[in-house]
Amino acid sequence: MLILAIDTALDHCAAAVLDTDSAAMRAQETLPMQRGHAEALMPLIARVMQQSGVGFHELDRIAVTTGPGSFTGLRVGLSAARGIALAAHKPVVGVTTLSAYAAPIVSEDGASPVISAIDARHDQVYYQVVSGSGDELVAPRVAAIDDMLTVARLGAPHLVGNAASILAARWPADAAAPVAVDTQPGPDIAWVAWLGAAAEPAHAPARPFYLRAPDVKPPANLPLEPAQTAAR
Question: Could you tell me which residue ranges the Gcp-like domain spans (predicted)?
Answer without folding.
Answer: 34-157
